[in-house]
Amino acid sequence: MAPTEPLIFVLHGARGDLAKRMVLPALATLQRRGLLPPRWALLGTGRTPISSHDFDVLLRAAVEEFGDDEAAEGVPELTQHTAYCGDVTEDDSADELPGELDRLREALGGDVTVIHYLAVPPSSFAPITRALKKAGLTDGVRVVYEKPYGTSLETFRELDATAHDAFDEEQVFRIDHFLGKEATQNLHVLRFANELFGGIWNRQHVAQVQIDVPETLDVAQRAEFYDATGAALDMLVTHLFQVAAEVAMEPPRKLDAANLGTAREEVIAHFRPLDPAKDVVLGQYDGYRDIDGVPDDSTTDTFVAARLWVDTERWKGVPFLLRTGKRMGASAQQVTLVLRTPDELFGSPVGPNRVIVSLAGSGELKVTTTVKKPGAFLELGTGTADLALADVEPGESLPPYAGLLEDVLVGDRTLFTTPAGLESAWIAFAPLLGADRPTPEPYAVGSWGPESADRLAEPHGWVLGD
């Protein structure tokens, strides 16, 4: 249900790429679903002053380009709630934002909830946080930080200290939209509500876990940001580590924010620090350096494959294989449990047994198992049972960003990362930032990355691209 208290949603960086691609379409979807309060305002901020009318034009264009039909239907009503003011930085007086907030509070009336969403480059997180504190705008509000939350263990600790100097932990929402995917949340249900799967969720039955997020997209629209970040920082230490924690965690006492957060924290603390020499392969697709904004001598990785070890009793000796990259052979978001099987049965080789959860869209569950081939002879084959989660009735899934924003509106922190979990993730990732960082290897556009990444998945091989 929609919250009833009036709301001011302050979108910092409202004219930026992230706001246009993700946040504005998500708000339009929530408006269409009736999940926003009756009295609310969307207050955009940015470096370049524009009128509320121009902001509405930008909003419509963003949803038309990046939203779906449902989001487009929410735009007419959404534009009735918009306002715009200048940007907030640490050195500015921030006079315009407090005054605009006071005006909107008076217009909305009642006890107004204020949410600050920082859809800005990570380098702006700390300055905006300090500016909000300096302007006296932090009491009782909620703040949403995008990823990456820091770019190293040291910068993570500095940013988190700045955030906690301005806000209590309960006010802070660190977003990771992979945790907001309904298909990711289905990992909980698949495992904890079905003994068929829960009983095999351990090293006795699982030979490998593969978490694979290849992309066919390039980086031309955000080359400057991407070249300063790369695939490992953009995806590995954020999304893929968090999904690995969802798969590897011990059963929580309850499926609520506190217990799920604790379970993720505890298992990430058991992530063994990466060994760059043995367990990591970096790549850069052919032609990346030809993109405008990318230096001719760039060593930025556009591909990363890593073998992660989770040192718990449940997963000891089971490799978690994490892979992502740009301009690859296909786009997918997939978790695969490669099950242990005998080499042969009745003199015939046994085919692969797998449990596959697609995280793309509404999600899909596939179970691949060994079966007898139809016919007079006892010959073995492989069959796959599919369940598209969109076919489960009744229900209508929310896009990840819309779902997470709805959680922020009601104050539900279940699907948001915690400081302890992020610190452990940075500790595990830290060796890849050191002197032993491997040199990115070239790979062809449309391929599955450097061939040397195949050794990480031996003896079973990568399921995607097989």
Automatic annotation (TrEMBL):
Name the residues annotated as catalytic in the UniProt entry. Answer: 239 (proton acceptor)
Question: Which reactions are catalysed by this chain?
Answer: D-glucose 6-phosphate + NADP(+) = 6-phospho-D-glucono-1,5-lactone + NADPH + H(+)
Question: E.C. number, please?
Answer: 1.1.1.49
Q: Which residues bind substrate?
A: 177, 181, 215, 234, 326
Single GO term (MF): glucose-6-phosphate dehydrogenase activity
Its annotated function is as follows: Catalyzes the oxidation of glucose 6-phosphate to 6-phosphogluconolactone.
Its recorded name reads Glucose-6-phosphate 1-dehydrogenase
**Originating organism:** Cellulomonas humilata
- The UniProt gene name for this protein comes to zwf
